[in-house]
Write a structure and sequence with these properties.
About 20% of the residues lie in helices and about 30% in strands. The protein is an alpha+beta fold. Strands 5, 6, 7, 8, 11, 12, 14, 15, 19 and 20 form a ten-stranded antiparallel sheet that branches. An eight-stranded parallel barrel has the order 21-22-23-26-29-30-31-32. A six-stranded antiparallel sheet has the order 33-34-35-40-37-38. Helix 4 packs parallel to helix 5, helix 7 runs parallel beside helix 8 and helix 9 runs parallel beside helix 10. The longest helix is centred in the C-terminal third of the chain and has 21 residues.
Length: about 700
């Protein structure tokens, strides 16, 4: 029996590869160092399961757990041939290793099923796997579930994942890891604002820079599940896969189903686990490589009030303050005077734009800016020419339409005619205006998502893959086009959609007090350059709260910077202040969008801190934010992690500090400490009011 040992970036994965059974991970976690064949054999002998009380043989838990082994937990494969072959037994397996990739091709000769499992360990130490199932029998195979499960050792005591709602996405939640299943199912037809995002099993001391974490992410944009399971024998598994609706996948003889990539990140602390996702994404060939252009989106500036003169003035002011990309949001297409009508009618509204969008596009380009446009290609308003002409293109089942949400329904892209219509209209507009950018929105959940082209059968799986195909074909036609995934804000944030898009809109809420948390936890999966982060008006559109420009600008500073604000209402002084923030971001965006994200554990009460450190630790930018009134005063000290201990660093504020009391010594700009001291003792928190923050610039002076 072969034992494989994959190693990368401080991670080891040891996989047992028997010829008569599916591969099983024996170790996934910290690097074990170089191991020869004898050491691997000894390690495997110690890590293999021992007898428990369920059956008289050791119970294996391969990547696709099988009930036939005596496993009493959740099986990996669930399905049947017309009620038969419901408990598969894959006893014929061939293996192929290419570099850090293992492919196991297995067969169940009785059930006539073929299964291929692919396991990869990336250079960042991020592990991922997926499974393909083939029906090799002469009768249909109904697939109910195909999950992959990754073992974690007995040391984790806690579970950590995320929840949320619209405009308040990715709220962290933590609970004890106990016997049984912690199951997070997403049935929204999109990833959802309440998605688990990454489900972690962690040690009791888990923080950003301490403890150990084993995390799982399902890289799929439709229905899916994450779960953690601990059995009475103490075995603990993290698992996940696509969540299939009844009858959604029925494989005809010879047909196959491919599951999504399941990503697994181990780290000593949540930051280390996040870095694995970040480096994986940054290594993609299509990852944005140049400076992320500062953008202005018109939504919170004009909403549906599209007036050419007003938009031209907005473009002029945007260019004056250094904006590099101008994006016209919702309201430009036929019949779209409010949110109740027009979706699906993807032609420019001649009553508002008698000369088309050309006058605006021409002026934007003359000002040296790129031009982008908002679409919601997957949706349709019942009040639209498209819906009146093709009512059967609305996703539905039975004799009813799904309940309206935002006065809209879902366009059935599994219908070839509907798919071709949307593809043709989008490509025509992209070509006509030579678009640089698309904001691709998706504002409602999929309810009763059946396809009339398939007799009303459940079609979330097919719809998700149709969206992927649509994105792929558009990108193939226009490879330099950038696409943002927006889904009622941050409702579709996953590595499936990120294979096809260049950034996500983290939330429709840009209130900086809310965004402090949203950005902090979106960063558990995505690096800053992929997270749309905008400066809004002084009074927040979604919460009604008011904040100073400095706090709004500093909060947005670490993402893909932008503005969502009616600049025509600003005074000359306010425009100058905003322009200074844009210029400051441009000076530091290379660091912010290539460096290592760090989040601070154990900040003083009501204080939150985070930063980005250059890969060579030569420079860093941190933000220290006061989120509320602390019970003690002065606020205390914040440690600055991630620096080289032996290097002496100059420390200064990036912008002048408004200090409501005695300012700390480091704010004078003539201050230096070794990295060890900055990480061990830290720097004093300035006496800030609630909803104020300071940016700290740290630069290596000597080593």
């Amino acid at each position: 029996m072969e034992i494989l040992h994959l190693r990368a970036a401080g991670v080891s994965v040891v996989i047992e590869c028997p010829p008569d059974a599916l591969p099983a991970i024996l170790h996934w976690g910290p690097d074990l160092g170089p191991l020869d064949d004898e050491a691997l054999a000894h390690l495997a002998a110690d890590l293999r399961p021992r007898l428990d009380v369920s059956v008289d043989v050791p119970v294996r838990t391969p990547l696709v757990p099988e009930a036939r082994t005596g496993w009493m937990g959740l099986p990996g494969l669930s399905g049947h041939h017309l009620g038969q072959n419901w408990s598969p037994a894959f006893t014929r397996v061939a293996y192929r290793r290419t570099g850090q990739t293992l492919t196991a091709t297995a067969g169940d000769e009785h059930a006539r099923l073929g299964l291929t499992i692919t396991v990869e360990l990336g250079d960042s130490g991020l592990l991922r796997a997926r499974a393909d199932l083939r029906n090799e029998a002469g009768s249909p195979y109904t697939l109910d579930a195909l999950n992959l499960a990754f073992p974690v050792p007995g040391t984790p005591t806690d579970l950590f994942d995320q929840a949320g709602r619209w405009a308040k996405e990715r709220i962290p939640q933590r609970r004890p890891l106990t016997t049984g299943i912690h199951l997070r199912e997403n049935r929204r037809g999109r990833t959802g604002p309440d998605a688990a995002t990454v489900l972690f099993a962690g040690t009791s001391d888990l923080g950003f820079g301490r403890g150990e974490a084993w995390g799982l992410h399902v890289g799929f944009s439709g229905n899916h599940r994450h779960y953690a399971e601990r059995t009475s024998s103490g075995r603990t598994m993290l698992g996940g896969g696509e969540l299939l609706l009844p009858g959604e996948i029925i494989l005809a003889p010879g047909e196959s189903y491919r599951g999504p990539w399941i990503y697994a990140a181990y780290g000593r602390g949540l930051d280390a686990a996040a870095h694995r996702f970040h480096e994986h994404l940054r290594a993609r060939p299509a990852h944005p490589s140049g400076p992320r252009p500062v953008m202005l989106n018109t939504w919170e500036a004009v909403y549906f009030d599209h007036d050419l003169d007003r938009l031209l003035e907005l473009a002029d002011r945007a260019a004056r303050i250094g904006v590099e990309r101008f994006v016209l949001d919702d309201g430009w297409f036929h019949g779209r005077r409010d949110a109740r009508a027009g979706l699906g009618d993807w032609t420019v509204d001649a009553t508002v734009w008698p000369d088309g969008l050309a006058p605006l596009v021409k002026r934007v380009r003359e000002l040296g800016m790129q031009f982008g446009l908002w679409f919601e290609p997957e949706m349709i308003n019942p009040d639209s020419d498209l819906a009146r002409a093709h009512p059967g293109w609305i996703m539905q089942t039975g004799d009813r339409l799904p309940p309206l949400a935002r006065d809209q329904q879902v366009l059935d892209l599994t219908n070839p005619e509907a798919f071709t219509y949307v593809r043709t209209r989008l490509l025509a507009l992209i070509s006509e205006y030579d678009l640089d950018f698309i904001k691709w929105d998706h504002n409602r959940d999929l309810v009763d998502a059946g396809s009339t082209a398939k007799g009303g059968r459940a079609a979330v799986h097919a719809q998700t893959h149709a969206v992927y195909r649509l994105l792929d074909e558009i990108r193939a036609e226009h490879p330099r086009l950038e696409i943002e995934s927006c889904s009622g804000g941050g409702g579709r944030v996953d590595l499936g959609i990120l294979e096809r898009t260049d950034r996500v809109w983290a939330s429709d809420c840009i209130d900086p007090a809310e965004r402090q948390q949203i950005m902090r936890w979106t960063g558990q999966l995505l690096p800053p350059e992929l997270i749309g982060s905008h400066i809004g008006a002084g009074r927040s559109h979604t919460t009604g709260r008011r904040h100073d420009l400095a706090f709004r600008a500093a909060t947005a500073f670490f993402g893909h910077y932008g503005i969502e604000w009616d600049l025509t209402t600003l005074t000359g002084g306010e425009l100058d202040e905003l322009a200074s923030w844009v210029a400051l971001h441009k000076r530091h965006r290379h660091l912010l969008h290539t460096g290592v994200v760090v989040r601070v554990d154990d900040a003083p009460e009501c204080v939150q801190a985070h930063g980005v450190v250059a890969a060579d630790a030569s420079e860093a930018v941190y933000e220290i934010a006061m989120l509320d009134r602390p019970p003690t005063w002065p606020p205390g000290h914040v440690r600055l992690p991630g620096l080289d201990p032996a290097t002496v660093y100059s420390v200064r504020p990036l912008m002048p500090v408004t200090s409501h009391g005695t300012a700390p010594a480091w704010t004078t700009g003539d201050f230096a400490l070794p990295g060890a001291a900055l990480a061990g003792s830290g720097i004093a928190v300035p006496p800030l009011f609630p909803d104020e923050s300071v940016l700290v610039h740290v630069v290596a002076r000597s080593r």
